[in-house]
Amino acid sequence: MLEWVLYVLIVSAVLCAVGWLTEQALRQRRLQTRWAWMAAMTCTVLMAHFALPALTSPQQRMPLATSWANIQHVAPLKLPALSSTDSTESAYVAARRWNTLIVRVWLLLSASMIVAIAISAAHIFWRRRRWPMQLLGAHCVGITSDLGPAVVGLIRPTIAIPRWVLGRAAAQQQLILAHEASHLRARDPLMLTIALIALILMPWNFLLWWQWHRLRHAIEVDCDARVLHAGHDTRAYGEALIDVGQQRSRFVGIVAAMSETRTLLERRVEIMATCARRPSIYAFAALCVLAAVVAAAATQIVAPETPGGRQEISVDTATLDRYVGTYQIKSYFILTVTRQGSQLYTQITGQPKVPNFAETPNKFFYKVVDAQITFAVGDSGPATSATIHQNGRDLVAPRVDDATAQALEQQLADRVSRGQPQNGSEAALRKSIAAIAAGSPDYDDMTAALQDAVRTQLPVLEGSVKQYGPIQSVEFRGVSETGSDKYLVTHQNGKQSEWFITLDAGGTISGLLVRPAF
Question: Residue by residue, what is the 3-state secondary structure of 386-429?
Answer without folding.
Answer: EEEEECCEEEEEEEECHHHHHHHHHHHHHHHHHCCCCCCHHHHH
